[in-house]
Amino acid sequence: MSMRGNILVADDDAAIRTVLNQALSRVGHDVRVTSNASTLWRWVAAGEGDLVITDVVMPDENAFDMLPRIKKARPDLPVIVMSAQNTFMTAIRASETGAYEYLPKPFDLTELLTIVNRALAEPKRHVTEIRGEEQPDPMPLVGRSAAMQDIYRMLARMMQTDLTVMITGESGTGKELVARALHEYGRRRNGPFVAINMAAIPRDLIESELFGHEKGAFTGAQNRSTGRFEQAEGGTLFLDEIGDMPMEAQTRLLRVLQQGEYTTVGGRTPIRTDVRIVAATNKDLRTLINQGLFREDLFYRLNVVPLRLPALRERSEDVPDLVRHFFKLGEKEGLQTKRISAGGIELMKRYGWPGNVRELENLVRRLAALYPQDEITSEIVETELRAAESAPTATSASMLPDDVTISQAVEHHLQRYFASFGGDLPPPGLYQRVLAEVEYPLVLASMTATRGNQIKAAELLGLNRNTLRKKIRELGVNVYRASK
Questions:
Q1: Residues 118-164: tens digit of each pLDDT
Q2: Following DSSP, what letter does each residue of 416-469 receive, concatenated?
Q3: What is the pTM (predicted TM-score) of this model?
Q4: Contact 391/350 with Cβ under 8 angstroms?
Q5: Distances (CA, A) of 393 to 80, 275, 388, 397, 399
Q6: β 276-281/271-272 pair status
Q7: Nearest residue to 264 (alpha-carbon basis) of 300, 297, 231, 301
Q8: What residue stretches are annotated with the Response regulatory domain (predicted)?
Q9: Is residue 420 part of a domain?
């Protein structure tokens, strides 16, 4: 049941004012609209309104400049900020200045009404004090797609918490960049950011790297060494490629997360720890759990806030912004100013980008360094992309023929899976594990193809909608809705 409220709307666009006025009035709210910030401030200062909806860019004042005054005068008044400048820094500034919620334009009207009802229903509370200290340089999280807008909004919500975050995504999607953003714009930004890549450390040294060791703890330990937990005290510890962590280290990490303390290798005295954990992986941890290679209880300890980074092919509309961004970075490093023709950009948007943003960055740098002309033609882009497609890849799955059937791909996978156990057999329960592994990508692909529309996805799969909802919840499928 929605609560009626007095809504103040400020937007320079008359069409948006009309749409919001009609939509909010239709569900019982009293609405006042204006096209300038000064009128909005006059209403707020007079004590009018239960909620504010405002665009960022107004003719007479930027909403971000006005928000601190609103929060000081009426700290319990929720303010919903809208903006067509759909960047990471817009979402962060909305959070920093005390906005209740940030919505990128174009917005989903149904979602806006849901946010309005939630804001009016929540008990009045004072918002977090607005920070006035100097902020770090903007983080290069680039893109205005619907998928990235969801990422920005999620990050903005996580900045003022210490909740553990699990970032998943293919290699090259920017998982460490997001982890750094969580730290640099969060409440632990004055503490250290310490990263450790599980895949880059010998298995027998991971526990020492994480927790440190005492002198004489093992052969070669000639001095006491601090671990990453101690180095990250008061800050953020980024556990990259968490899926490669050996089982013994997983057990110790779980104990730290449960008890908030650890002991060094060879030590006896427990050490209290105060770090925020951000983990990342490009692997399907649920598959590893089914294979007995990852602890299920550790997964749930780490997966408090799941954050899936979309592959670049899922947000191809961001390619032009990313290309401009990487060219600017190249200019700062002494490379010549370049641009890519419209035809070249279209080719790049249609390319699959198996290496994701990292592959795109490498291509842009290569184009800037190797070609003398100011404008890179579509012919040059096509040549470079064709060379990239013909290059050998690291994953054996990509060596399968293009026309391979699902049955053949599964058979190929199972042959490798059985071979990995040598002369032994896999753990019992293989039938259910295989079904679970196939079910997750099937539901994910269907939800992605229908752009998050559960009704269409259920019809596509031939499932009841309630059954699909249950599977989405059980499997942990997370798909970004398309903006309307």
A1: 888 876 644 443 343 444 445 558 888 888 888 888 888 888 889 99
A2: HHHHTTTTSPPPS-HHHHHHHHHHHHHHHHHHHHTTT-HHHHHHHHT--HHHHH
A3: 0.65
A4: no
A5: 46, 37, 10, 9, 8
A6: unpaired
A7: 231
A8: 6-120
A9: no
